[in-house]
């Protein structure tokens, strides 16, 4: 009888140990998955000279490292960004900044130079121009970013853009210093994909995970 009781007790203990190990493994897996969504840096990207949309005094800045030639960036700008605009930027809880990434060689540089030139010329025209460049991106891949195209888009924007000055600024690389600042940030933050989204000093693994973005914004309030 004693042997049977001991055997039964050992079986119960063994079962409990296995159960505890399984629970611990589950918790660790969940924590690992959660941690894998984010990467934290020692500081957020410097906003000096960067375009800023929304309340400049907001505690939270949403950064997009993007490329005007990137189809995924266009998709993000038409799906995720409008929700962020409504829920956080328009309400003053967060602001938004865009940092150029030049993953598509000279066309990326051309569009970045154009956008930075508009920002330098008239900051109020920057965001309409920014949106219009993405809107002009064709569904099929092509070499569509040209000087004439950048000027054509500028001619449709209100407030008005001085297209003669824009043409001169692009041709003389007037805003290359600011583009170079962005290139340095891309290197510093080891950007490997576009779009890459940061909330203050935290980078998300999946830029289209709206719930994860919201969670970070709320934590930073």
Automatic annotation (TrEMBL):
Keywords: Disulfide bond, Membrane, Oxidoreductase, Redox-active center, Signal, Transmembrane, Transmembrane helix
Signal peptide annotation: none
Source organism, top-level taxon: Bacteria
Transmembrane segments: 12-31
InterPro entries: Thioredoxin-like_fold (IPR012336), Thioredoxin-like_sf (IPR036249), Thioredoxin_domain (IPR013766)
Pfam family, one: Thioredoxin_4
Record-annotated Thioredoxin domain positions: 38-221
The protein's name: Disulfide bond formation protein D
């Amino acid at each position: 009888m004693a042997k049977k009781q001991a055997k039964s007790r050992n079986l119960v203990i063994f079962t409990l140990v296995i159960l505890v190990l399984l629970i611990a493994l589950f918790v660790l897996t969940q924590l690992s998955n959660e941690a894998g969504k984010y990467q934290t840096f020692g500081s957020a990207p410097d906003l000096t000279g960067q375009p800023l949309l929304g309340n400049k005094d907001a505690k939270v800045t949403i950064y997009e490292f993007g490329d005007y030639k990137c189809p995924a960036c266009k998709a993000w700008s038409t799906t995720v960004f409008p929700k962020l605009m409504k829920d956080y930027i328009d309400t003053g809880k967060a602001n938004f900044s865009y940092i150029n990434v030049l993953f598509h060689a000279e066309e990326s540089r051309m569009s970045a130079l154009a956008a930075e030139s508009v920002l330098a010329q008239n900051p109020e025209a920057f965001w309409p121009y920014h949106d219009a460049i993405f809107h002009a991106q064709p569904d099929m891949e092509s070499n569509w970013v040209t000087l004439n195209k950048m000027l054509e888009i500028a001619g449709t924007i209100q407030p008005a853009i001085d297209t003669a000055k824009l043409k001169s600024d692009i041709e003389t690389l007037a805003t290359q210093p600011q583009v170079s600042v962005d290139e340095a940030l891309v290197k510093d933050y080891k950007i490997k994909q576009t779009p890459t989204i940061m909330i203050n000093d935290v980078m998300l693994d999946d830029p289209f995970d709206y719930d994860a973005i919201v969670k970070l914004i709320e934590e930073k309030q």
